[in-house]
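Example record for the data management plan.
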Amino acid sequence: MRALIAIILIIVTGGLSAQSIQGRIIHNDPATYRDLTSVHAGAGSMGFTQLIGRDDLSSNFLYLHTGTIAGKSGIGHHFHHDIEEMYVLLSGEAEFTINGRTSTIKAPALVPCKMGDSHAIYNDTDQPVQWLNFAVSTVKGRGGAFDLGDDRVGATQDPIPAFVSGKLDKALLKTERTPYTGKGVSYRRILGPDVFSTNWNAVDHLTIPTGTKTDPLQLEGKEAVYYVINGSGTVTADGKSGSFGKDDAFFGRVGEHITLNNTGTETVELLIIEISTSKKWDIKKPLKEPKAMVLEMDFVVDKKNAQAFEEMYYSIYVPAMIVQDGYLSSKLLRLYSVDQAKEIEAEPTTFNYQILISFETEEKRRKWVASDQHQIAWPAATALAKEFKWRGYHVMGDDDQ
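Corresponding structural encoding:
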């Protein structure tokens, strides 16, 4: 069995666990940029490279792109059907367009491009600007774009942006209510999960003074991508450390305990992107009190009665339970075949069917047992079984959706 578990872990984690934390730290080096022109039918040219890609994390994080946009150049007007992006301006200023409305944004700042919103960037100055682009997809690894054939050169501007944007302003950071605790650590949540339709959870801004490190923060139900705007230090993930500097990017995986340590002479400043493993999964802390109960009933059913037993569940048992106060859910389980059971080294058993029923409380389940409907459903089940037994459980956690 241990060998099987080891094989499963290798399959599930793949190359992820093989990469050291130092191997996850990628420097934003302009020497690696590729020259691109007419990006999404935009004007001029830009430098481009990818720092983190779709295969690096287990969540639906798609990419972290970076580069420079030359003067009088840009990314043309386009939109995406199934990804969300966020452009970050690290230097200079540029004209941002969201859904046809254009305004000048000055660095350091960011502009989220929500699902289905058309967007573009144009650098109307003569100086290059440095940019980042984060993206999260609805389906892991899936990208795609639709170009509108509009370079936005000479677009009419609104003096006040008619779209969501955020400033990377250290004056707005506060030392209280920060998940990254530590002496003098300052923090601000710029954007929360309500802004995004994908599993994008948050955009955070963080500073760490010289000689300070954060307490370990566990990434519960989420992953995080970090970009170092300034400073140097070390990042530790579950006891393994790596060194980072200005313009480095790195990431933490779900479940890891992340510690950030400023070992340099300047304040460390970070932009942090959080991605939930799934917004559909309501992942909570361990419960102090049960949230429900489950009764687990095992049956020995002859092969000749198997079809009738399964039909009974749908035609009699479920209809009888769904009208009961406090009923939550149920499942009918059929045991694996002998060959499948051997493959997974399953515990031998003579019980070949199981019915799980869940009620809000044990008291409400007992009311179901005392009901007229139960006097019909239970005999219908046991009449088709040679043997049966049951156990009761308190529900202390689930991920049922």
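Summary line stored alongside the record: The chain has three domains: 17-167, 170-276, 292-395.
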